[in-house]
Amino acid sequence: MNPVKELLKEKSGYILSTLMSQGGEYGEIFYEKSRTTRLSLEDRKIDKITHGYDEGVGLRLIKNGKTYYGYTTEPTFENLKELAKILARGEGHGPVAMGKRHISGWTEVLIDPDEADLKFRAEILKRADEKARSFGDNIKQVLAVLMDKTREIMVINTLGETAEDLQKRVVFFVEVVASDGNILQRGYESLGGRKGFEIFNETPPEEIAEKAAKRALLMLSAKPAPAGTFTVVMSSQAGGTMIHEAVGHGLEADLVQQGLSVYAGKLGEKVASELVTVVDDATLPHHNGSFTVDDEGVPAQRKVLIKEGVLVGYMYDRLRAMKEGVESTGNGRRQSYAHVPIVRMTNTFIDKGKDNPEDIIKDTKKGVLVVKMGGGEVNTVTGDFMFEVMEGYMIENGEITYPIRGATLIGNGPKALQDVDAVGYDLGWAIGTCGKDGQGVPVTDAQPTIRIRKLTLGGVESS
Questions:
Q1: Cross-strand bridge partners of residue 378
Q2: β-strand 384-396 against 366-378: which pairing, if any?
Q3: For residues 387 and 374, is the Cβ–Cβ distance under 8 A?
C-alpha cells in the first residue's frame, strides 16, 4: 500500500474543491514516485553509479486560460491544502466532479529492474566493453551506459477522472572512439524501451557494442564528404531523427498556437508528398515513448498527423485543446511532478510505404545513403534544419560505393517531405530523450527507407 496515494484518493475532493474555490476551468493533482539507477563504464571500469528515489505531488489550476502550478516533496494533507489555497488565491470550496472514470495501467516485464542488483547491471556493461575492444588496437575509448527507471504516477482531476500508470523503462548505449594515429572517429548505438532487462535476451549488449565499434572503425577509412546538392536516401536504420526534429515539433499545438510553427494554419493543406503519412502513437507496446496514460491522465492514442501528404491534425495537451475547443490527443507530458505538462511527441514516425528498400538504392543514379544520423538543430518557425551524418555512403549508378565522413544534411522540413519520391516497406526505430522548455521525456522515432530528390550536403570537398 502506498500511503501518499491513499491519502490523495481519500482527500482529493477537499484538495480539488479548495483549488477551485475562486473559479477556474480545470484543476488536477499529479502524484509521482520514481526510482532511477544509472551506471556508466569507461576506461574498463565502472566510473559512476547513480541510484535514487524521488516522490512529490504537483497541483495545477487552469483559470482564464492561464496555468497556476505548485508542487511539494512533503505531500501531507496540510501542505497540499495550503498549496491549493495559494494557487486559488483564496479559501472556500468550488465545484468538483468525483468518480466518473478510473484508468489503471502498468508495464509487464519478465526481468524486473527493481529486483536486479548492481552486479547484474555491471556485467551488462562489461560484456559490451569487452566486445567493443575485441575489434583491435584502433579502438581507443569505450563508454557504455545503462539506465533504468520505474515511475509510478497518478492523476486525479476536477472532471471526476482518476488515472494511474506504472512505467518501467531501460536505456542502454555504447559510444566508441577509434583512431588510426591521425584522425579520431566516433561510433554510437543505443537500445531501450518500455521493458525490463529481458531486453538484453532479445538484443545482447555485445550486438550494440559491435555496431558502435564497427561504425567508428568504418569512418576511419571513409573519404571526406563532398559538398553540394544530392539525392539522399535515408535508410530505416537512420531512425526518425529528421521526422522528429524537422517535422514533429512543428506539429505540437503549443508551438502552432504561438505562431512558432511552419505548419500553423495549414490544416487540410498538402504539406508533403502523397507517399508520406506521419503518425504519433503512444499505444505501441514496449516503445520508449509509450504509456497507458499521459501525464495529464489522458489515455494513450494513435494520431495520424499527415495523411498521404495532407496535414490532418496536431498534437494537443489539455490546455491547448481547451483553447481550441477540441479534445486532448494524449500528448501532455512532463519530466516530473516539479514540471508543468506541455505538448510532447511520443513514438513519432513516417509510416511504411510500398517500395523495396534495395530497389530504392538501385534506382538512384547518384546520391548519398544515410545509415545513421547524429545530432542536429531545427528552426520550427521556418522548418530549416541541419543534421550530422554519423554513417553515410556515396551511391553511384545504383550501387553503394564508399563511406564518407564529415557530412551534414542541410534542408527544410516541409520542402524535404514534398521531395520524397520513394518510401520503403521497412521501418527502423531509434530511442531518445526529447528536450523542450527545459524538460526531457523519453521518445522513440522511426522511418522506413525514404528517398528525397534533393538536399544540400555540407562536406569538406566540392562535388
A1: 385
A2: antiparallel
A3: yes
The pLDDT tens digits for 123-172 are 999 999 999 999 999 999 999 999 999 999 999 999 999 999 999 999 99
| pLDDT tens digits along 284-304 | 999 999 999 999 999 999 999
Cell output for 191: 537500445
Closest among 237, 271, 240, 232 to 368, alpha carbons compared: 232
Question: How far is 200 from 197, CA to CA, in rounded Å?
Answer: 6
Collapse the DSSP code of 217 into the 3-class scheme (helix H, G, I; strand E, B; otherwise coil) and give the result: helix
| Spatial separation of the C-alpha atoms in residues 105 and 430, rounded to whole Å | 24
174-201 pLDDT per residue, tens: 999 999 999 999 999 999 999 999 999 9
Own/partner contacts of 82-88, CB < 8 Å, gap of 24 or more, are 83/59, 84/15, 84/16, 84/18, 84/19, 84/59, 85/18, 85/21, 87/19, 87/59, 87/60, 87/61, 88/18, 88/19, 88/20, 88/21, 88/22, 88/24, 88/61
For residues 241 and 441, what is the distance between their CA atoms, to the nearest angstrom?
15
Judged by DSSP in three states, 18 sits in: helix
Residue 25: enclosing H or E segment and its boundaries? Answer: none
Cα separation, 286 vs 108, whole angstroms: 9
Say whether pLDDT at 462 is over 60. Answer: no
Q: Could you give the CA distance from residue 431 to residue 447 in angstroms, rounded to a whole number?
A: 12
Residue 265: all three cell numbers together = 494554419
Rounded Cα distance between 294 and 245, Å, is 21
Q: Which three cell numbers stand for residue 345?
A: 511527441
According to DSSP, the β-strands at 347-350 and 384-396 are unpaired
Torsion of CA 314, 317, 318, 323, to 10 degrees: -40
Question: What is the pTM (predicted TM-score) of this model?
Answer: 0.96
Give me the DSSP letters along 251-289: GBHHHHHTT--TTTT-TTSB-S-TT--EEEETTSTT-TT
Instruction: Compute CA 125 distance to the chain's CA centroid, rounded to the nearest angstrom.
Output: 23
Which stretches of 334-398 are assigned E, i.e. beta strand? 342-343, 347-350, 366-378, 384-396
| SS3 label, residue 134 | coil
Please give the grid coordinates belonging to residue 409. Answer: 544534411
Question: Which uninterrupted H or E stretch holds 241?
Answer: helix 241-242
C-alpha cell at 320: 491547448
121, 171 contact by CB (below 8 A): no
Residue 301, classed as helix, strand or coil, is coil
Alpha-carbon gap, residue 283 to 291, rounded angstroms? 7
Check the CA dihedral 199-204-210-211 and report its sign: negative
